[in-house]
Amino acid sequence: xxxxxxxxxxxxxxxxxxxxxxxxxxxxxxxxxxxxxxxxxxxxxxxxxxxxxxxxxxxxxxxxxxxxxxxxxxxxxxxxxxxxxxxxxxxxxxxxxxxxxxxxxxxxxxxxxxxxxxxxxxxxxxxxxxxxxxxxxxxxxxxxxxxxxxxxxxxxxxxxxxxxxxxxxxxxxxxxxxxxxxxxxxxxxxxxxxxxxxxxxxxxxxxxxxxxxxxxxxxxxxxxxxxxxxxxxxxxxxxxxxxxxxxxxxxxxxxxxxxxxxxxxxxxxxxxxxxxxxxxxxxxxxxxxxxxxxxxxxxxxxxxxxxxxxxxxxxxxxxxxxxxxxxxxxxxxxxxxxxxxxxxxxxxxxxxxxxxxxxxxxxxxxxxxxxxxxxx
Length: 376
Prior knowledge:
two-stranded antiparallel sheet; globular; dioxygenase activity
């Protein structure tokens, strides 16, 4: 996509962008800026509209820095992911502190993400497809489905587009490095109690067609529905902590995952990384043990406990709510490639995909039990 095309895209977005309700969780972002305008009150709705402008200088910088390294069509996607990442790091100081710490002892220019994860409500178009459509448009491929009956969840993961230097040749760190997998889960709302369903659908109604702009909401750190009442948040939390989290965080990045086997120092071993983080005072999710291991022993994962953020509810209460966390994943070499020399091993030689048992425990990173657990 050329500079001229990006400028035209920005103009089109500005002219056609529908209304979004902007939460006060994080009104600051770099790639995209907004300003409030008046909106007519219809029934019980009282929403803000959003005028969105792409920063020309930021886009030009991305283009000049990335020319010759990747297809032009991916520049905008990386800019959007970069905006999501900035919102995530601003709201979650633990994640930023850990990234800075790892960079201080490893290769600061090549900290790669294994995957990015999002949560959604599986009702009236607001589920997995609302976030997935953006990535599918850029060549991501849908992979297998995972089910979590006890949590009333399902998830899909998406692999990066093929034929691009996303696995081993790409350089850069974070969202500017090798393209990450995408993991999107959704709450099976129709399996909840009538009371919980009523609460969720009440807010979904205020969103209107906001699900069509889930990616934009994530990049802005905004909710697409009306800011909730504290009483509704409390009621949902009693039945589904996942539901309560999604109500106040919306489409925000739930977590990013450092690919430990891509690190250059001894921290490439996830056990060594876990010990290093704990020695530096970081609290890891202890559900099922700090290290989560797949049955085949080839996928090893761990995560921190989520940060909390002060949230002002629409009924005037200001309370601390769970925000996001950071995860770590080590993918071991598949048995059929075990005789390869270390320098010959590529990403496709390693264990791919996800594991229900691991993911089920990782979900607990935002649970009240983990947030209130004492360190150690």
